[in-house]
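Weekly modeling sync, notes
Attendees: S.R. (lead), two postdocs, one rotation student

Agenda item 3: backlog of single-chain predictions. S.R. asked that every request posted to the team notebook include the full sequence so nobody has to chase files. The rotation student volunteered to paste the first one in as an example of the format we agreed on. Action items at the bottom.

Example entry:
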Amino acid sequence: MQPVEIYTSPLCGFCHAAKRLLTAKGASFTEIDLVRQPDRRGEMLSRAGGKHTVPQIFIGDIHVGGCDDLYALDKAGKLDPLLKA
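Predicted structure, as returned to the notebook:
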């Protein structure tokens, strides 16, 4: 499986939903909690092309985007192949 990284905040419902979907898919992920690690926000902004909302999800070298983007990939049948690539 591809490595998955997700930038989150503990009070973000979209973050929890994205993590639930990834867990349901059997994908392990590295969570970067921006409340506990605020110094990593600049890293997220750089990697996500300036997007500042959470979650920001990366699968391998691909920036998926946020929760809605992750669910759209799943609905289109593209999430499983991306995770397994």
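Discussion: group reviewed the output briefly. Residues 4-84 form a domain with the Glutaredoxin fold (CATH 3.40.30.10).
Action items: rotation student to repeat for the remaining queue; S.R. to check formatting next week.
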